[in-house]
Each structure stands twice: as C-alpha cells, then as structure tokens.
Design a protein that fits this description.
4-stranded antiparallel β-sheet; globular; Jelly Rolls; mainly beta
C-alpha cells in the first residue's frame, strides 16, 4: 500500500470516528437529569438586583435547599445575618463580600470563580457584584430568615 493510500485510509477512518462521536445519545432521564444554561429558570428578586434559580428544596421551609444566585453588576446587599450556616461556590465573575454592621463596599474582598465561601450562622455580612455579574451556587438548611443588621 502506498503512503498516499495509507493516509487516505487513515483520514477516512478518523472521519468516521468523529462522525460517530458527534451523534451523542441522550442520557436516560430515569438515571440522569440536566438543565442546559439557556433553560435555567431565573427569577428576579423584588428589587431586581439579583436573580435566583432553585436547584432543589425550598429555602422558606425546614430542610436542605440549593439555588443559583446571579448578582447583577453594581448591586450589593446591606449588612444582615441568617440563623443557619450557608455554603457557596462562586461559579463565574467575582463576588464581593464584607463583614460587620457598617456598610462599606470599598472594604469588601473579591471572591473569584472557584472560591468556596461559608457564611456562619448569625455572622453579620453583606455581599454582591461590582463591575460584572457574578453567579454563585448556594446550599443551606431552611427555613431562611434574613435579619437586617446595619449600623448607621
């Protein structure tokens, strides 16, 4: 077999392999569930400063819950605390966090994508996004109560 024929045969075989890989089967929905990014059901909060998407549970009821939060650029919460620990992973953008009862966005610390954050129960904090949107994943135990704690 000539070198040219060998390369042509190899190219044809590789093309068939790539073609078979590009036709992926859908996973069995009894085994695996998923939601593509375009299909995530984001809901604006009342002030339109962030959006949430529930992954599971209900944060207003006893038990575990998880959600995504998209902080819109230029928006931050005011100092507050929660009765239970809450656990976060920054998925994209930079989430800015501050502690204490005095609201001072200039003193917040950047949490880039990939950072793990824990808000400990009753710890006064505030957080949000500055220049770009930030998406975070949150897991906690409900019911959630948000208690304002700003010192003027």
């Amino acid at each position: 077999m000539t070198t040219q024929k060998t390369w042509m045969t190899l190219a044809c075989a590789m093309s068939l392999c790539w073609a078979s890989l590009s036709v992926a089967a859908e996973p069995d929905p009894k085994i695996l569930g998923y939601t593509l990014p375009a299909n995530i059901a984001w809901v604006d909060n009342a002030a339109r400063t962030n959006q949430t998407a529930v992954i599971y549970g209900d944060s207003s009821k006893p038990g575990p819950y998880a959600m995504l939060i998209r902080w819109k650029a230029g928006n931050m919460s005011r100092p507050h605390f929660h009765e239970n620990d809450r656990f976060f992973v920054v998925l994209s953008g930079t989430w800015w966090v501050g502690t204490g009862p005095k609201f001072d966005p200039a003193s917040t610390t950047p949490m880039p994508a990939g950072t793990l954050v824990t808000h400990f129960a009753r710890g006064i904090h505030y957080d949000g996004a500055k220049d770009t949107d930030a998406i975070i994943a949150l897991h906690g135990m409900g019911p959630v109560s948000t208690i304002p704690a700003e010192q003027k």
